[in-house]
Amino acid sequence: MIKRGRGMRPALALGLAILCCASAWAQAGRRQTVSSTGATVLNVVATRDDGAKESVPQKSIALYENGLEQTIKSWVPDPSPARIVLLVDNSLSIRADVEKLEQATKEFAYEIFEGDKILIVGYDENAEIVTDWTDDPKLIESTLKNFRKKGDPHLFDALTAVAEDGLRPLSASVQKQVVVVISDGLDRGSNTKFETILANLQQQNIAVYCVQLPDRTGGALRRDVPKPKAVIEQLAEGTGGRVFPIAEANIAAKSICDELRKNRYLLSYWPSNASVLEARRLLVIGDEGITVRYKNSQPAVGR
Predict the structure, then answer these.
(1) What is the rounded CA–CA span in Å between residue 204 and residue 75?
(2) Which of these, 79, 119, 258, 287, is most buried using a 10 Å CB contact count?
(3) 281 shares a domain with 229
(4) What is the pLDDT of residues 201-238, one digit of tens each?
């Protein structure tokens, strides 16, 4: 459910509406991403270690599910425009001032390619839209003053909100969906479990990149929730993204936008000897000199 937040800003309502959505996901499940021919589709980032620009051919890639090699039906570059959600922790205890959060976010406004659009969402106990979908850097700059620090960080609920309300409505027309989390990874109070949101992101083929802030907990153990550093790492590794330190926000923005436009591929295949009712481990291997990134699991349908 989308409401109006502070001023003229629409808000991504969490509360009972998000709890109902999360419950519905768990009960009804989500289909894996499939092509028009019924094949399963994976998003893969593939680069040459020597920096060469030529495309990586299909013959240089191998795919395994649960240890069994799969037949790749197609492997094609994906230069299509991206929809990028910048999800910014503006809770009270985050170890960054508002100006640093603004600057890290603003870096992306000048690095996106033609056709790309950005949605900026700030979160504490609630997730609120700071800037609605746009490719206008001046508009983005003018709205960033709406960041403010208060409340506790409900990161997992915020990820649920942007995946469902921000990105799922675009799934029929936009293949390239990305969330950039600007946070230390701390969640304090979400109703959504980490394992649930990670599986939902994987099912939707949403890649998560992280611009990591210093851990405000100092690495302390937390009951029933991964440490913040582990949350950041697992979100990126589990969905095919990357992690950058906040001190390199400018490098992060350029690297993320460049690879989304220049180094993304669509891999399609028909799973063999595997049940869609069970989670399947994924392994994509490139020939020597080729580095690949991809989500590491295909969650069970109905999870």
Answers:
(1) 19
(2) 119
(3) no
(4) 999 999 999 999 999 999 887 778 899 999 999 999 99
